[in-house]
Amino acid sequence: MSVDGFPPFIAAQLHYHLNQCPHSTKVDQVWSGSKYLPGLYDRFTLLIPYCLDFIRWDFIYNAEFPMAAPDVIFGPEDEDFYPLSATSGGRGPFLKSLQDWSHKDPTRLLVLIQELRDHYVAYQRKRVGEVDDDRLKFEISTIESRQGIEMHMSSGAGKPEEVKFAVPLLDMNINKLVLGCPWRHQQKIYLQVIYPVIRKYMTAPSAPRLKLMSNPELKALFLVDDAKLPSWVEGMCMAEYLPHLEETLEKQVLEAASLVDVRRRFIEALAPLFGRPVEADSVFCRKATFLAASGAFTFLVHFLVSTLFPKQQPSMLLQSTLHFSNHGVPVKSPLLTDYPWSPRWDASQMAEQIFDFLADESLNFKRYCNESQLQH
After folding, report:
1. Residue 120 contacts residue 49 (beta carbons within 8 Å)
2. Distance between CA 126 and CA 82 in Å, rounded?
3. What is d(CA 266, CA 317) in angstroms, rounded to the nearest whole number?
4. DSSP assignment of 67-108, as one string?
5. DSSP code of 334?
6. Is the pLDDT of residue 217 over 80?
7. Prediction pTM value
8. CA separation for the pair 357, 134 (Å, rounded)
9. Which of 129, 331, 338, 375 is surrounded by the most beta carbons within 10 Å?
10. DSSP 257
11. How far apart (Å, rounded) are the C-alpha atoms in residues 96 and 119?
12. CA pair distance 351, 372, nearest whole angstrom
């Protein structure tokens, strides 16, 4: 995000936070609160990741008094959250990040948000711990030794009372599984567990709602939506469920990492037939583009390779280098997925079958391109 329009000291702090924060914070909106400097932004809303969702906090600087730290406005659900003092009643010493505030230091906003977020984690954990639900109290007691768990109590008008847990999984460095890893942040997989608040005893409470979630970047290697969750057996608790889940998930992640080399061998097997790729994804081996020809007709072949390869065959998209729309856009084919394929073939046989298929398909594509030109 551009920080143009902010005074230099605010711009420096916001830029540093967005680029250095370990959480992927987003700027939701910006505005000016100054009567005398209306062209300068000095206020903004941040969407801060928490418990696999976002919390919205407004940061209110004052461009006319640049030495002052920003005020912070928290969400309407958190009216009992008093982090600007050490105690919940609004009394006590200020946060250390405010005591050490300097508008000239670009790191100060990041330090302030990290400290506020730590207080918010403790605040939500306290709220959840005070819920009058025996099952929740038991669940918390069995997992409180696990590091990094976040909790959130959701309630309010028109909302069902429920508690959400975000449980980090797998004590492994996923980034190190990928050669030449481009990820700036450590990739993590989480289990989201949602319990309805039940303020009465039940002999056989229903299973919680379960969902695997991850950093968005991880989908280049492993889609958590494709992972299979173990069944939740009646009477089970999280402390029993998590070890089995992590054992299953670790095998799936390691298999996904090993499939990078399988995809790489497939792309390399295309080169003797199509020539050197015009471009290719050299890290995850999910995409490659080759220049092909049928007589004088030349076209690009885009290969889109799924994380489920070779069980799922690649999709192909043909793009003419000679035919364009009235807007200058190259003519492209629909996605091609219906062609001879077997996941049991070796890479060279896969490449040969695709090459033979495209020898015929290129004639259909050429005819399609010529017809599209006549229509324009």
Report:
1. no
2. 13
3. 17
4. TSPPEEE--GGGTT--TTSSSTTS-SPPPHHHHT--TT-TTH
5. P
6. yes
7. 0.82
8. 63
9. 331
10. H
11. 12
12. 29
